[in-house]
Design goal:
single chain; 216 residues; 6-stranded parallel beta sheet; 5-stranded antiparallel beta sheet
Amino acid sequence: MKKSVLLIGLGRYGRHVAQELYQMKHDILAVDKDEERVNMVLPYVTNALMADSTNKSFLESLGIRDFDLCIVAIGDDFQSSLETTSLLKELGAKYVVARASRGIHEKFLLRNGADEAVYPEKQLAKWTAIRFGYDHILDYFRLSDRYAVYELPIPAEWDGKTLGELQVRKHYHVNVLGIKKAGILDVEITAETTMNREDTVLVIGKRNDLEKYFHI
C-alpha cells in the first residue's frame, strides 16, 4: 500500500532513504534546514521544505497525525534528532523511526518516543564482517539473533540433484527460498527443481548450521 511518509534529515543517509521510498511509489514530504540538501532531494519526493524540525509550531502545521510513517534521519546533530523524535510522538505520530549514530543514541531515542531506532553503521559493519569474513557467503540479511537469509554458492555435491532428492531441510536444517541464475532470482521452486553448480542458492537458517553443513 502507498504510504504517506515524513522524512526529516536529508544528508546522505536521508537521500538514500528518499530514493528507495520513491522507487516504492510512496508519498514523501522531506524536511531539512539546509537549502542545498532540500534541492538535491526534490526529484525523489512529493514535496520538500526547508525548516527547523525542532520548531513545534512548524511540525504542528504539517498535521503529523496524517502521516503513516515518520523517519528522523538526522545524523549530524543528536540533540535535534532527539528533540524532533520527542515532538513527533507528542504531536501524535503513528510510527517514528529514528537514526542513531552511536549505541547510546539508540537507547535515548527509544526512551524519547522512537518506535524503532536504526543504527546504519553498526548494521553495515555486521553485514561487512559476515559477507567478507566467510569465503562462501555472497549476501546476508539478518532476521533475528538466531536466523538470517544467506546467499551461497551451490555446493558441488548438490550439482545435478533435485531439491526433493537432497531433502535440504532434513539433512542441512535450512530452508531454500530461491535460486539465482545469472543474477536473476527464481522463487518458483519445487521438489523437482534441479541444482546447478553455476547458480547460487538463498537459504534461511541458523549460522551455526551453515557453518557445520556448508563449510563457510
